[in-house]
Amino acid sequence: MMEPMRGTLLTDLYQLTMLQSYVDHGMTETAVFELFVRKLPGPRGFLVAAGLEQALQFLEALQLSPEEHDWLAASGRFSRELLDCLAGLRFTGDVHAMPEGTVFFADEPILRVTAPLPQAQLVESRLINLLHYQTLIASKAVRCVLVAPDRTLVDFGLRRAHGAEAGLLAARASYLAGFAGTATVLADMQFGIPSFGTMAHSYIEAHDVEEAAFAHFARSCPENVVLLIDTYDTEAAAHKVVELAPGLREEGIGIRSVRIDSGDLVAHAKQVRAILDAGGLREVGIFSSGSLDEYALRELLDAGAPIDGFGIGTHLDTSNDAPYLDCAYKLEEYAGRARRKRSENKATWPGRKQVYRQYDAGGRMQRDILTREGDVQEGQPLLQPVMQDGRRLHSPESLKTLRTRSAKELERLPAHLRQLRSEPAYPVMIADALKALAGEVDERLEVMN
Question: Nicotinate phosphoribosyltransferase N-terminal domain: from which residue to which, for each copy (predicted)?
Fold first, then answer.
């Protein structure tokens, strides 16, 4: 059986019904589609582009499997001509994109696809699916990084993620945004993301004596001794760790940290820190988890909680305060003519576009200018060519490179956006050239319709 996540038919039916009509009427000229976010979710003042690597992998591998082709033929919905076209399907177009880790704002295209109309249309659903999710998670994770830049942050969200692919890609997106690693082992194997793990409460409960659980784990995993101490009585367990440490030290085993997963984390962390310090374990860190997000991190750190690292799970992998982005992938040009949607509250800017970013004297982001391609403005152009004639122009960027870019982008953010504020909105100016093109398209539409 074919792996579902690699299937070309992981798409919406209307992509195929439109393809049928395009083929019937010979509409196969070059089309330009752009993917953007219409508006930022209320809590977000900016977003971080992520998922381009998986999008390019999808385009490179685009083809209909024999099983998919047979299923479409058996469905009776599509003509032999369309089935023949799909049998030889490959992506042969060009792609421009913002590099992963780039900060962006509403209405700014992060991906442009230029290809024969049937190809460019067919890939819409999966491209949105891939870019939307990782961008969503990276944009959530980076807020945690802004709040706790000097703390160890680890993705703990696999078990609450909306499916296997989501859990895996959340690990990638959060690492790209600056997390130290993930609890998801496959992300370590597939992407080289450092994996972190301790123990569950069930491990402690399986032992009759809590001290025995600690000792057994330390001897079985001597290189990563992180002890979960809140199964019964957090402070009592901290005292047990102090009592256990000298014997383990004689065996050459050091305790790296203790983990607290419940209760009043500020109070527990302060009391545990005092117990560890009094017992000569100043080098032992405190790691916390349990329903955390950027807001909880800010409260904990503002309260002076002596916590060295955090596991961020459910609230990260579901982006609970902003669980979706208003993404769109819209036709901006077909057969050499600029196009635009004029639907109420959903109008788009026409034509191939570019985003120029301008910086102040201190290197902070000052404003962006959205304009039509070819209208050169001052600043840094953000959309870059990444694929031509269906082939990549460059080797895949390493996650290290993406993390470095993301970190530099955070350094360049205006001060208020570094503090989880969405107001005042970052200025994105619409260039006169783009406004003029929109006027030309509107005049043409009025004449023809």
Answer: 9-131
Query: Locate tokens 């030290």: which residue?
Result: 249
Q: Tell me how many domains the chain contains.
A: 2
Indicate which CATH number applies to the domain containing 119. 3.20.140.10
Rg of the chain taking only CA atoms, in angstroms: 26
Is this structure's pTM higher than 0.90? yes
Tens of pLDDT, residues 116-163: 999 999 999 999 999 999 999 999 999 999 999 999 999 999 999 999
Question: Is the bond preceding 424 in cis, omega lying within 30 degrees of 0?
Answer: yes
Q: DSSP assignment, residue 39? A: S
Instruction: Note whether 33 and 63 are same-domain residues.
Output: yes
- Which tokens sit at 275? 């117990």
Question: Which range of residues forms the domain containing residue 173?
Answer: 150-317
Quote the tokens at residue 338. Answer: 């600029």
Residue given tokens 């050239």 in the structure block = 433
Edge-to-edge strand ranges of the sheet holding 152-155: 181-182, 152-155, 309-312, 285-289, 257-260, 226-228
Strands 380-381 and 226-228, sheet pairing: unpaired
